[in-house]
Structures are given as structure tokens and as C-alpha cells.
Amino acid sequence: MNFKRIHHVAIIASDYQKSKDFYTNILGLEIIQENYRPERDSYKLDLKIGESEIELFSFPDPPERPSMPEAAGLRHLCFYVNDIDEAVAELNQKGVETEPIRRDEYTGGYFTFFKDPDDLPIELHE
């Protein structure tokens, strides 16, 4: 195998418009394309994040996440930022609550967490 990067991460939103607003207007991700699939009553929004993508889906009545955050499966998303203090300040100005910034005891890097509209944990790492 010759993996080069993560192509995309898929997220299923319980409230598509609320999540679309969060990822585009709050986080500032660029829309690549948006499609409505009537046969599934589902939206698919492709968002650009660096060289990767986030696919934001809507489905009628999706099941809830089993538990936070230690359920088996994907634990959280992590976005790298150049200046964590600046990123946290910008999120806070937009009404997004963040945890206190901490320092990773193994890597020495700084990180914090916040949540999307469906309580998906998202990490910022500097």
C-alpha cells in the first residue's frame, strides 16, 4: 500500500442546515459542491480542508452516536492550526465553546477540543 493522505472524512448530521452553517460559516470551510439525492432524501456537501475533504451528509432519522467519546470507531476529528490561541479566540467570538488549551505530555504540542452541532468532538492541534 502507498497511502499518501486522508482523502475525506464523512459526517452524518442530524440537522443538515445547522451543520452546514457550522462547517462553512463558523469554521470557514470552502464548499466544493452540494448535491441533493431525492431517492435517499439526502444531501451531500463536499467541503475542502487543505488537501483533504469532509463529506457532510443528511439522512432521515440517523441513529445517535452510542457514547462520547470512547465508543468504538472514529473518536474525533483533528484540525492542525498554526496558532491555537488565535483559532480559539476566533471560535469563541463566533459563540463556539472550547476546552482549555492543554499541552500534550508526549509531543509537547498544544491542543484543545470543541464540538460540532451534533456533539462530534473536534480537536485543534498546534
Written description of the protein model:
The protein is α/β, with parallel strands linked by helices and 126 residues long. The protein folds into two domains: 1-62, 2,3-Dihydroxybiphenyl 1,2-Dioxygenase, domain 1 (Roll), CATH 3.10.180; 74-126, Roll (2,3-Dihydroxybiphenyl 1,2-Dioxygenase, domain 1). Helix content is 17%, strand content 37%. The strands form two sheets. The chain has a four-stranded mixed β-sheet with strand order 1-4-3-2, covered by helices on one side. It has a four-stranded mixed β-sheet with strand order 5-8-7-6, with helices on one face. A hairpin with a 5-residue loop joins strand 7 and strand 8 (121-125). The radius of gyration is 15 Å and the shape is globular. The model has no long low-confidence stretch (mean pLDDT 91). It holds the Pfam family Glyoxalase. Keywords: Metal-binding. Residues 5-126 form the VOC domain. This is VOC family protein.
